[in-house]
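Let us work through a complete example step by step.
Step 1: write down the sequence.
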Amino acid sequence: MSDNEMMDKEEIFSKVLRAGRRTYFFDVRATKAGDYYLTITESKKFTNDDGSFHYKKHKIYLYKEDFVGFTEILNEMTHFIVDEKGEEVISERHQKDFQKSYEKDGVDNNVTEEVTASTESFTDVSFDDI
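Step 2: predict the structure and record it as tokens.
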């Protein structure tokens, strides 16, 4: 059996969060012993000078014995950030008056942006659904 077939068999439940150039994959997988664990993969798209692109991926493996501690710290960190800086994104790209280069030229390409994730979805993490 190939590695890809094994990966397909191990995947139990998945969700995807698209956030601009980043995509987050949440996958419940099974160990050889039949227990479940969570993988969180961040995939970010990069464009090369020649117009081609590639993805960089980072993966976290989270096991049941770490769920409580991980959830507590994630909630603490996300609440701290929102309490200190609010929910509005602070960056040049996310400025209310930010215009992409094609928008400045007056060209409308009917480009639609994917909806970015709100901080609320990260602060109310629950592993009970897994």
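Step 3: interpret the result. Helices lie at 3-10, 67-85, 101-104, 119-123.
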